[in-house]
Design a protein that fits this description.
The protein has 358 residues and is an alpha/beta fold. Helices cover 45% and strands 18% of the residues. It starts with a strand and ends in a 17-residue tail after the last helix. Bound molecules: 5'-O-[(R)-(carboxyoxy)(hydroxy)phosphoryl]adenosine (KG4) and zinc ion (ZN).
């Protein structure tokens, strides 16, 4: 069985061919065209520009994924596309292209939820995960905890009430002049600071104790910045980004004083701690036999190290970094159980910006 996956929910146009034999998936090709250079200067994803870039990229990206896999369109078992959640104008490009390929070839169409894709990025590399699993999906748009039962049935246990964890990284980085996306830069600089230098506290949650909230932390960072006269160093970093689109760690370090490195380390420590504490509480509640962490923030080295050092009584699985951020191999992987169940999508299937997984 071979599935072509297509992903276009946000700012990456991606296509991949994944093969499954005896329950073992293998990535035959995976192409990701990033729009970072388009959105970077605006400090975040601009929806209109994103759909325009997807339109430009979709045909060559799919063609390259097919070429590299050596699989012809007619030999595919299915074509899977992300149906939501995401930016509706972006989703439409990938979904519509998948529908036209399906219509032209007769290969069935499968609609995949983007969040389910992130979970399958882990399953791709660890097909024998232990159920029930707890999935922590942490990206620029989501911070969700799901129970995963055999057959990939999901139950939502907690989510963010305001900002997603990745969004908190992005907003703090933008505030400090590091540009977009913020997660990778903060991750690279955090080891140079003291994570215990600035104490951030999280408000106790009313209602569902497993929900997250990151807007208070973002405001606390803003107050700290206002109280510490940081205008000139922020201006120096903004100037650096104008000179060089992707500064190196050394270049950032020359423009980031120790006090700011301490702030970054403390901020990252607070986010990591919050994610792991709630995930561990949740895993205990459902008697999880494994923990899956996925989504862009799963690239974070501090989060990976802390999860490894936490001494959790079950295995913790992260995707390799290339599969943590948006890609299409995870979309194809998520489609295999649907193919086995004959869960195909009709041509009337609409993109759903706010699609929920459970
Ligand atoms: O999964 P993803 O590629 O797209 C969404 O579905 O949102 O995640 C992108 C998010 C961004 O917010 C980015 O700052 C964050 O993941 N991210 C990171 C790291 N790499 C990417 N956050 C923390 N540490 C990282 N190393
Ligand atoms: Zn994503």
């Amino acid at each position: 069985m071979r599935i072509l996956g297509i992903e276009s929910s946000c700012d990456e146009t991606a296509a991949a061919v994944v093969e499954q034999a005896q329950g073992r998936p293998a990535i035959l090709s995976s192409i990701v065209a990033s729009q970072l250079s388009t959105h970077g200067k605006y400090g975040g994803v601009v929806p209109e520009l994103a759909s325009r870039e997807h339109l430009r990229a979709i045909v060559p990206v799919v063609r390259e994924a097919l070429d590299r896999s050596g699989v012809a369109l007619r030999d595919l078992s299915a074509i899977a596309a992300t149906v939501g959640p995401g930016l509706v104008g972006s989703l439409l490009v990938g979904l519509t292209y998948a529908k036209s390929l399906s219509f032209a070839t007769g290969v069935p169409l499968i609609a995949v939820n983007h969040i389910e894709g992130h979970i399958h990025a882990v399953v791709l590399e660890h097909p024998a995960i232990e159920f029930p699993a707890l999935a922590l999906v942490v990206s620029g748009g989501h911070t969700h905890l799901f129970e995963v039962q055999p057959g990939f049935r999901y139950r939502l246990l907690g989510k963010t009430r305001d900002d997603a964890a990745g969004e908190a990284f992005d907003k703090v980085a933008k505030l400090l002049g590091f540009g977009y996306p913020g997660g990778p830069v903060i991750d690279r600089l955090a080891p140079y600071g003291n994570p215990a230098a600035v104490r951030f506290t999280f408000a106790k949650m009313k209602g569902n104790a497993l929900d997250f909230s990151f807007s208070g932390l973002k405001t606390a960072v803003l107050r700290w910045v206002e109280a510490h006269d940081m205008e000139s160093e922020i201006a120096a970093r903004v100037a650096l980004r104008r000179e060089r689109p992707a500064p190196t760690t050394e270049e950032w370090l020359t423009r980031t004083p120790p006090r700011t490195l301490d702030l970054l380390a403390s901020f990252q420590h607070a986010v990591v701690n919050e994610l792991l504490t709630r995930a561990a509480a949740c895993a205990e509640q459902i008697e999880a036999r494994s923990l899956i962490v996925s989504g862009g923030v799963a690239c974070n080295a501090g989060l990976r190290a802390a999860a490894g050092a936490a001494g959790l009584p079950y295995p913790v699985y992260f995707p390799t970094p290339g599969l943590s951020t948006d890609n299409a191999a995870m979309i194809a992987a998520a489609a295999f159980p649907k193919l086995e169940r004959g869960e195909f999508a009709g041509f009337e299937t609409a993109a759903q910006a706010g699609l929920a997984l459970a």
